[in-house]
Model the fold of this input.
Amino acid sequence: MPAKGKHRRPKSRSIARGFAAAGTGGAALALPLVGAAGAHAAPAAPAVAPQTHSAVQGQPVAAAPAAAPAVYTVVPGDCLSTIAADRGLEGGWQQLYADNREAVGADPSLIHPGLRLSLGAPGAAAAPAPAGKPADKPAAAPKKKSPAPAAAAAAGQRTAKAAADRQAAAPEASAPQAAAPAAAGAFVAPVGGGVSTAYKMSGAMWSSGYHTGVDFVAASGTQVRAVGAGTVVSAGWGGAYGNEVVIRHADGKYSQYAHLSQLSVTAGQSVTAGQGIGLSGSTGNSTGPHLHFEIRTGQSYGSDIDPLAYLRSKGVTI
Done:
């Protein structure tokens, strides 16, 4: 009996363990099914990430902003045509004037030292690159406009030669006083042309009833010179005289130069005999290009004296 008891106990334990193993096995079989379902559901979520990356790559790249136009400050002797030629500006002086019309004013020939000009169309900027195309293609356009170093040097030499030719061809270039600077204290004629209208000529066309100065023959753009050393007391618009310059000399007399198309000096500036002070023209009350010249005992209108007699007293042959 004790021996049989020993055999029964192991069997019933074995059966109990068998059920436990079966229960455990059932639980073990259930767990992988749940895990497998979770494993199939998880990979669906990351599918959105590649779409976001693709959208970022497809965005257009904005072009870099264009550089601001260069600024040039006018110096004595400048005019729009020479500035445009010296810098090879597209469109020439006409485009330069159009870009700076507000600063220059209604007369393109009237620019003065110190005036700042924009060398290039204001507000010009490169257009953005179209979507999906490289952003470096629009940058190729400015490179075409930039001349090669050798071409730029050749263009500069041609411009300098042209300026020298224009200077040599000026009407007053043959005059003796234009060949060399005047000696200290010497006087010169304001232009090389002769007199077209004499001093004190009477007529209703002058408000005072007579001509208060002399008119010299001078084509538009002729260089006008200071007759003697002195200080510029005014340079600008003078009403009926148009653009004028008035200079006070050491002897207390004043010389006046009227109807100028361009000024090359400013008030307060010291000048020497023969120095260029502007270009002749037909501004103000004028019937055509010429130089109206006066000598005065005071700065203002109404104090005129015979200008030719004054110049002759200073040794000028007219």
